[in-house]
Amino acid sequence: MSSKKLIVKGHELDGQQLEAVIDRSHTQLVIAGAGTGKTTTLVGKVRYLVESEGVDPSRILIISLTNNTVEDMKETIKGEFGPGFAADVMTIHALGNRIVRMRSCVGPVKNKLLGSIIYDLVETDRPRARALLSYVEGMRATTASDISLNGISIRNRGLRNISDVLFEVGIRCEYTRADYSGNQPTPAFIEATDPKGRKLKVIAESENAKNFAKDPAKAREYLGDMGFPTETMNINDLAANVLEAWGNRIPESIGSLISRCKNTGITIADLKRANMRNPVTVRVPIEERLDLVDRVWDLYNMTCIQGNMADYDDMVIQATDVVRSGGYRGKRYEYVLVDEYQDVSRTLVGLLKALREAIGFDLFCVGDDWQSIYSFNGGDVWQMLEFSDIWHEWGEPSIRRIEVTYRSPQQIVEMTNRFVSKNPMQHRKDVRSCHVSDVPPVQLLSVNNDREIQRMVSNRLQFLDKDASVFIIGRGRNDVFALGNGSGQFSFSISDNRASGTVDVVFRNWDDEKGDWVEDRRLTYLTAHSSKGLEADYVFLIADRDRGGFPSTVADDIGDLFPRRDEGVPYPEERRVFYVAMTRAKRGLFIVNKMEDGYALSSLNPFTQELISDNGLLLTKSTPFCRECFGPMRLIGSGNGLFYGCCDYPNCKGTRPYKGF
């Protein structure tokens, strides 16, 4: 162990961080754990190079993967070294654009451009219009399973089917979400009025809605019985209307597919060949969708060329070609440092290798393969797993680890390590915490339905420190509606076309004197993906399997055509997504869990079942369940009088002592 000391961001580097920083190997990989200080270590490397080795800061390039993380890194560098520090901090795409001489960036208008191209196609071309509707059905079988043709998220299948038919015949409907916030909950319903003024209303719990869920044809029959039009509009108009109603969803999806092809080197022709292995009933619609994507891609490329534009992927690919052909005229960097290396793509590594061959530099990379969760965008965890083989041309790389986390207490660390480590293809690491919680930091909040999710989360929120930060994390964007419709105790607003995975939420209590809701605290809802890199004192993780959450098992018929390597465990990336969500918690983790057969320590979610099986003592001690009926319990009382009481009171009067969380 070195006797040196290094202060970064006001803290002395720990032993492992320091050893990684002072290592002078030409190629380094630092394998990190969640909360172990990846950014601190990278900034420490910069400080060591500049202050101990006399390296000119202008010869240092720091690469992060997104514009947001680059801005965060710039602020960190500025805070550490002051304004005017000469090291370059940028995305790999920005570097690529410098190399191709600063072409206009498609990025901010990519969805708009793709949407315009798709609209022009489907407006007049019947086969393309039919292909778009087929593509939408593919999306609805996977990532958009709850989205009606009108672009609105409707979880009830019967209501969604009647909404679809109304949209197809050109009648606008209004959807009202269920409201469980008051003492008299109201179910969701659909309302519509036809051109002649006839009205209909379908309630989620009605027999009609149940019939529509079983057979969508029943919905059209019902419209006919009500005197409503039943003839579907022209297919070109329908496709154009769906495209408009879905906002950015369709351009985003097609754009992501094109991006994934670029980042993996897989062509549409490759996907078509893989599709030939499917039975004909599956093969034909996928072929149709791939033809649509292929045509959109061609027109998109043509538009970019004519406008002298490049998207983020092309900036990297074209820059690699320029460098390999001897056309690099940029800075001669001595050191390149890469953050979040677990999320790099094959094309990104290709550009780094081409640059290294052209100008030579030492390479320092930091990443956590346990948090590699972006394969759908071309991220390739194998670039990190096979780091030594990829970079062996520059000598044997140095592989080091930083394993002391400064975020979660040891109990959470042990539980999450045990869970994610079951993947045999990952880098082994012994992540450990710098502190142990005095009280059990994990609780299962067992529920039977969405209404109980709201009640259990709100019950625990009542007893958390007012100044504590709180995240509510779900698998997808629409899991926020587990908190209600945004008009009750949890107030929020979310557009159905919103691209962000983050929603600001206000937790409110009812004030009898004012006769209205009053703000209690502010918190944040995030998808598991958007929570990466963030942390909060307390995390409520919606692990409800019934909502289509963890693990996401719905097959993506086009995504499944991409070759993938066996990692030796089911749902490897989904395990990492679940791990990311759990490791955001600094003080306490609440896992919201649908109970099975009425028992609190049971789950419909296989991941939660595994946590219970592997951590029975931890969860039994920290998770209150009624010893009388095995049901969930809520906190009751205040101050020193806190205790847990059965949620089924007065039918069950079981109690348990409160031990803190």
What does this structure look like?
The chain is α/β, with parallel strands linked by helices and 661 residues long. The protein has three domains: 7-101 and 312-405, P-loop containing nucleotide triphosphate hydrolases (Rossmann fold); 109-306, no CATH class; 437-657, P-loop containing nucleotide triphosphate hydrolases (Rossmann fold), CATH 3.40.50. Helices cover 39% and strands 18% of the residues. The longest helix has 27 residues, at 280-306. The protein is globular, with a radius of gyration of 27 Å. The strands form seven sheets. A seven-stranded mixed sheet has the order 16-22-21-17-20-19-18. Strands 5-4-11-12-3-13 form a six-stranded parallel sheet. It has 23 helices and 25 strands.
